[in-house]
Write a structure and sequence with these properties.
The chain has helices spanning 21-30, 37-56, 61-70, 92-104, 124-133, 138-158, 169-184, 188-201, 216-236, 252-256, 293-303, 321-326, 343-346, 350-360, 371-374, 377-383, 392-398, 441-452, 458-469, 476-479; strands at residues 2-7, 74-79, 112-113, 117-118, 263-268, 312-319, 386-390, 410-416, 421-426. It is of the alpha+beta class and 502 residues long. It has two domains: 2-280, 2-methylcitrate dehydratase PrpD, CATH 1.10.4100.10; 290-426, 2-methylcitrate dehydratase PrpD (60s Ribosomal Protein L30, Chain: A, 2-Layer Sandwich). The strands form three sheets. A four-stranded mixed β-sheet has the order 7-6-8-9.
C-alpha cells in the first residue's frame, strides 16, 4: 500500500491529473491484480449475504416501492431484480436501484468502520446489474466487486465524512463508479471522469440518519448506485466532470469537509498489488446498526445474571465517540427514546436495542422492532434507564489501524437499587473475524436459509447458492441468472402500476 497526500490546491496552483486522488482511484480500477482464494471466498460470502437480507425484506414497503419503479423500466437485454423471474430484465440503472434498496433495508449486511462508516456490500448491486446488462463473466464481475471494495474501504479509512455531517454515500458512489469501470475494463481517463462526477453528485447531509429516520436510509445507497451508473455512461460517451473534484479550490474538501487547509492521507494499493480490502469487512449477525452488534451479544450474556429487571436502577454503556454520538444518548435525539419511533430510528438507538436484547436474550430482524415490542411498558421503563458515555479508550480502539486491535463494543455497568453492580465488556461481536464465533461460509448459508425460509422454494435456494459458489467460473449467461426468484403469488408489486409517474 502507498499513502497519498490529498490537499486543496488554489486554481493558480495547477495539479497534474496523475497527482489527483480521482486519477489514482481510476488507476486502481484499471490495474490488473491476482485474486487469491481468501478474497474469492469472501466475495462469494458477500453475494450470498446480500441476497439473504434482500429476500428477507422483499415485501417491505421501501423495497416493494423501489421494485415497482424498476419494473416500469423493462429492457430486453437488461438486468434482473430480486424476487422477479430471471426471464424478465430491466434497465440496469433501475435494477441497481431496486436491488440496492432491498440489500440495505434491514441494515443487516456487511460493514467497515474506521475514520468514517460504510456498508461496502452496497457496491455489489450496481456492479452486478451492469455486468448482467453488458454480458460480463463471473471473473469480470469479481474484479469489479473487489475494486469497489478496495476503493470504498480505503476512503473510509482516511476521510471522515461524519465529522462534517455528510452522509457516507459520498465514499460509496465513487467506489461504485470505480468498480463498474474495472468490470467493463475502461480506460483510466474514462474512469477518472466518472469517479469525479460520482463524487460531485453524491454529497448529501447526515440528516438522513438523524432525528426521525425515514425509509430514505434504505434508498440512499441505491441512489448512489444509480448516480454511479449514470456517471459511467456519460464518461463513456466522452463527457467530462468537475475537476479536480477533491483538490480543487472550490472542491468537496474545501467546502464540504475540512476546508482549504484540509489534508488527508489515503492508502491505496500500488500497481499489481492484490486488492485485499474485502477481507477487512465484517457482516452482521443481528439486524441493527453495526456498533450495536457486540453490545447485543453482551446483553444476551448478561441476561442470565439479571433476575429482576425492575430492580435495575440504571445502565451506563461506556463506548466510542461514534457509538455515543450516532446511536447513543450523545446524539441528543429524543426519537431514540420514543416507543412510537420508526424501525429505522430504533435500529439507531443502542438504548432500545440493549434493553430488548437484555430482556429477550436474543435479537430478531422483525419481532424485535415490532410496535408491540417497542411499546411494552416494562421495556420502556428499562430503556429509559440506559445512557451512553464516551470513553477515550474505546474511541482509540475504534480507530486502531491494525484490524486485529479494533474494538467496536463497550463496557456496561448495571447498577441495582440495592447497591449491587454488574460490570462486563465486549470488544467485538461474536460473528466478527476476531470474535467468539467468526462467520464462515456455513454461517452465511445458514443466514440465507433462515431469512429466506418460507419465501423461496428449496430448488431456487439450491440453484442460487450453486451459482454463487462458482462465481469465478460463471459465464456471462450464468451471471444473468445470479438472482433469487420468489414465486409471484408471494411477491407484491410484481407488475407495473400507475401509482407514481413511471
Amino acid at each position: 500500500m502507498k499513502m497519498h497526500l490529498v490537499r486543496v490546491h488554489q486554481s493558480k496552483e495547477k495539479i497534474e491529473r496523475k497527482d489527483q486522488l480521482a486519477w489514482k482511484i481510476a488507476e486502481i480500477a484499471s490495474n490488473s491484480f491476482n485474486i487469491n482464494d481468501d478474497v474469492l471466498e469472501m466475495a462469494i460470502n458477500r453475494i450470498i449475504d446480500n441476497a439473504s437480507v434482500a429476500i428477507a425484506s422483499i415485501n417491505r414497503s421501501p423495497v416493494a416501492t423501489a421494485r415497482s419503479m424498476a419494473i416500469a423500466h423493462p429492457r430486453q437485454n437488461g438486468a434482473t431484480v430480486f424476487g422477479m423471474p430471471n426471464n424478465q430484465k430491466f434497465n440496469c440503472e433501475w435494477a441497481a436501484w431496486a436491488n440496492g434498496t432491498a440489500v440495505r433495508e434491514l441494515d443487516f449486511h456487511d460493514t467497515f468502520l474506521a475514520a468514517d462508516y460504510s456498508h461496502p456490500g452496497d457496491n455489489i448491486p450496481p456492479i452486478l446489474a451492469v455486468a448482467q446488462q453488458k454480458n460480463k463473466s463471473g471473473k469480470e464481475l469479481l474484479r469489479g466487486i473487489l475494486t469497489g471494495y478496495e476503493v470504498h474501504v480505503n476512503l473510509v479509512k482516511s476521510i471522515c465524512l461524519h465529522e462534517f455531517k455528510k452522509d457516507h454515500i459520498a465514499h460509496l458512489c465513487p467506489a461504485q463508479a470505480a468498480g463498474i469501470g474495472a468490470l467493463l475494463g475502461l480506460p483510466i481517463d474514462t474512469i477518472y471522469q466518472a469517479v469525479q462526477q460520482a463524487v460531485h453528485v453524491s454529497f448529501t447531509t447526515r440528516q438522513s440518519r438523524k432525528g426521525e429516520i425515514s425509509s430514505w436510509k434504505a434508498y440512499a445507497p441505491a441512489h448512489a448506485g444509480k448516480l454511479a451508473i449514470e456517471a459511467l455512461d456519460r464518461a463513456m460517451r466522452g463527457e467530462g466532470s468537475p475537476s479536480p473534484i477533491y483538490e480543487g479550490e472550490d472542491s468537496v474538501i474545501a467546502y464540504m469537509l475540512s476546508g482549504k487547509e484540509g489534508r488527508y492521507e489515503v492508502p491505496l494499493p500500488e500497481a499489481g498489488e492484490e486488492q485485499l480490502a474485502i477481507l477487512e469487512t465484517y457482516t452482521k449477525e443481528h439486524s441493527a446498526e453495526y456498533q450495536s452488534q457486540a453490545l447485543i451479544d453482551l446483553a444476551r450474556k448478561l441476561k442470565a445474571k439479571v433476575t429482576n429487571f425492575e430492580e435495575i436502577q440504571s445502565i451506563q454503556i461506556y463506548t466510542s465517540h461514534h457509538t455515543h454520538y450516532v446511536i447513543g444518548t450523545g446524539a441528543n435525539d429524543p426519537q431514540k427514546m420514543d416507543p412510537n419511533a420508526s424501525r429505522e430510528t430504533l435500529d439507531h438507538s443502542i438504548m432500545y436495542i440493549f434493553a430488548v436484547a437484555l430482556q429477550d436474550g436474543n435479537w430478531h430482524h422483525i419481532h424485535s422492532y415490532s410496535p408491540e415490542r417497542a411499546k411494552r411498558e416494562d421495556t420502556i421503563r428499562l430503556w429509559h434507564k440506559i445512557s451512553t458515555i464516551e470513553d477515550p479508550q474505546w474511541t482509540q480502539w475504534y480507530h486502531e489501524q491494525d484490524p486485529n486491535k479494533k474494538r467496536f463494543g463497550g463496557r456496561v455497568e448495571i447498577k441495582f437499587k440495592n447497591g449491587d453492580k454488574l460490570v462486563d465488556e465486549l470488544g467485538v461481536a461474536d460473528a466478527h473475524p476476531n470474535g467468539a464465533r467468526p462467520f464462515k461460509r456455513k454461517n452465511y448459508i445458514n443466514k440465507f436459509d433462515t431469512l429466506s425460509d418460507g419465501i423461496i422454494l428449496k430448488s431456487e435456494r439450491d440453484r442460487f447458492i450453486s451459482l454463487a459458489e462458482n462465481l469465478i467460473d460463471l459465464t456471462d449467461e450464468q451471471v444473468k441468472q445470479l438472482n433469487v426468484q420468489v414465486e409471484m403469488k408471494n411477491l407484491i408489486n410484481n407488475k407495473p402500476n400507475s401509482q407514481g409517474i413511471f
